[in-house]
Amino acid sequence: MTLTSGLSEAAQKEEEELTLRIAALEVKKQELTSGLFHVQQTMRSLQSRIAQIKNETAPISCLPSDVLEIIFDESRRFRRPLPIEVQLSHVCRRWRQVALNTPSLWNTLRVPILHRESAIKAYLYRCNQCPLSVHLGPQLSDRRIMDVITSVLIPRIGQFRELILDTQDRQELYSLLCHLVNTAAPCLQRLKITSSDPARGQGSYPPIEIFKQGAPLLSDVRLSALPITLPQAAVSTLHFDPLPGPVIPLPRSHLLSIITPVASSLTVLYLKGFVSGFHEEPGSAPVVLPALRELVVHGHAMIHGFNVFRNISAPSLRFFTLCSLKRQALSPIHKFMTRTSPDQFRSLRSLHYIDCEMDDDLDIYLPHATSGLTHLSVSLGSHTHLMRLLSNSDKQAALHRTKPLWPRLRTLTFHVASPWSQDRDDVESDEEDELPPAIALLLDVIQLRKTVGTELELLRLEGPHARAFHDELTLALIKSQLQVNIDVLPGLSPDNDSQLLSSGDWAYSGLFYGSQYRTHLYRKMQSGSHGQHHLHWGSVPRGPGSSLSP
Questions:
Q1: In terms of Cα–Cα distance, which of 241, 246, 205 is closest to 221?
Q2: What share of the chain is helix, strand, coil (3-state, %, to 5)?
Q3: Are 87 and 545 in contact (CB under 8 A)?
Q4: What is the pLDDT of residue 473?
C-alpha cells in the first residue's frame, strides 16, 4: 500500500501539480545556470579583450616580433624554478604566439629534472630542427625515463649541440653510454659525463668508445673517472672532474689515453679529478701539448702520487693555476719549473696559487724562472712567504739598482676566503694603530714596486670576505698616501671546486640544476617513511607556477 493511496483525490491532484511545477523550475534552473555560464564566459572574453587593448598600448607591445624574440632569448640566462620559456608563453596571447614560434626558446631539455614525457615531445616539436642542449640525470633509474631517452631523444642526437650525462652511479652511466656507441653527433660541441656516487659504482669498467660514427665539432669535454674513448675531433678544452671521489681515481694510463689523441689541439686542461700515479712507467716520455695555454691542477690530482710534468709537457703555457696543493705536492712543481726554465715556461704570464701550502724552499729561482709574469694570485693566509720574497728582492733591487724580480708584474690578486675582522681584540689600546701584518706586508709590496719602477696597475680582491679586507686596506692606503687601482669581486670561496667554473660557463648551469635536484632527492628521502624512498618521475616541485603546462 503506497503512502499516497490514502490521500483524497484533491490532494493527489495538488501533489501532481506541484511535482510538475518543480520539474519546470528544474528546467528553468538548468537554463539559468547555462545562461550564467554563458554570461561569465562572455564577461571573461570581454575582459580579455579589454586587457588585450591595454596591452597593445604598452611600449613593449610596439616592439617587432623579431626584437621580442631576441629579448626572450636573452632572458633565458636567468635561472628560475620554472623554465622561463613556459612563463613567457603564459603572459599574453601575443607573447605566447611569439614564444611558440621561437624554436631557440625550446631547445633545452633537462630530464627528469624539469621535463616529463609530454613536455619533452612538446619541446622537440616546438624547437623544430634547432640545435639541442640536453641534460640527462641525475636520477635515471625509472624505466620510463630510459624508454623515453632511447626512443625519443637518442634518435634526435644529430641535433645535440650540448650534452650533459650526470648520473647517481657508474653502472647507470655505463648503461646510458652504451646507447651512444654506434651513433653520430654531427652538431655536438660540448660534452660532460659525470657520476657522483662511488658506493654504487665499485669495480673497474672497460673503456668505452662513444660516437663511433663521428662528432667532428666536439671542442669542449668534461669527464669523470670513467675510461672514455673520444671520437676523432679537435678538442680544445678538457676537464677531469673530482667525482666520484678519491676511492675511484682515474688510472694514469686511461688519463693519457684520453689526452694523447687530442694533444695537438688542446688549449685548456683542468686536472681537478683524482688520478692514480703509482703505476707510472719508468722512463716514459710526457705527452707534449704544443697548443696548451691554460693549465689548472687541483690537489685532488696529486694525492695518489700522480706527477703532472712527468706526464705532460706544455711549452707554450700562459696561465697556470694551482689549487689546494699541499707543500709536498707543490715543491716538485716549483723545482721542475726552475730546472726547465726558460724552455718550458718562457710564455707564462699568469700564475695563481689558490689555497696552497707554500713550500719552504721557494726562493729567488722561481721568480727568475718565470720572469715574464704579469699577473700573480695568492690566497690570504698563504701569502706571507711569497710576498716577503717579492718585497725583499725589490729592496735589494732598489739598493743595488739591479733588475727586480718579475719586472713585468702589473696585477696582483688576493683571495680572501676566511673572515677578516676589523675589530682586533687581541691587541692593547696603544697598539691599535698598528697595521695588521697582512696589510702592512701588502703596503710594502705596493711601495717597493713603485720604487723599483714596476708599479702595480691593479690589485684585485676576491672571495666572500674581500669587502671587509678592502675597507681596512683603503684606510691604510690613505694613511700611507699610496694609490693603487682596486677591484673587489665578492663571491664564494675560490677554493671550492665549483668556483673553478664561472657562472657564465656552460657547465655551470648543469651543476646548478643537478645540485638542486640532489638536494630535493635528499630531502625526499629524509621525509620518507620506513625506507620507502621511491621518487616518481615528474614529482619534483617546480615553484609556484608549476601548474602551467608547456
A1: 241
A2: 45, 15, 40
A3: yes
A4: 92
Contacts of 425 (CB under 8 A, 6+ apart): none
**CA distance linking residue 58 with residue 95, whole number of Å:** 13
C-alpha span between 438 and 440 (Å, rounded): 6
Q: What's the pLDDT band for 541 if we cut at 50, 70, 90?
A: very low
Residue 504 has pLDDT above 80, yes or no: no
- Angstrom distance (rounded) from CA 94 to CA 141: 40
Report how far Cα 422 is from the mean position of its chain's Cα atoms.
33
Mean pLDDT of all residues belonging to the chain: 83
More confident residue, 464 or 292: 292
pLDDT of residue 285: 85
Quick one: DSSP state of residue 478?
H
State which of 130-134, 167-171, 383-387 shows the largest mean pLDDT: 130-134
- Cα–Cα distance, 55 to 60 (Å, whole number): 8
Element (H, E) at 451: helix 437-451
Residue 536 Cα distances to 161, 214, 417, 521, angstroms: 29, 35, 40, 11
DSSP per-residue string spanning 326-369: -HHHHHHHHHHHHHHTTTTTTT--EEEEES----TT--THHHHH
**Buried b / exposed e across 389-422, counting CB within 10 Å, b at 16+?**
bbbebbeebeeeeeebbbbebbbbbbbbbeebee
Report the predicted TM-score, pTM, of the whole model to 2 decimal places.
Answer: 0.81
Block residue for cell numbers 673530482 = 242
Cα first-last separation, the chain: 63
**Cis amide prior to 138 (ω within 30 degrees):** yes
Q: Is 81 exposed, middle or buried (0-12, 13-18, 19+ CB in 10 A)?
A: middle
List phi, psi (to 5°) of 110: -120, 110
Residue 156, pLDDT above cutoff 90:
yes
Residue 447, pLDDT above cutoff 70: yes
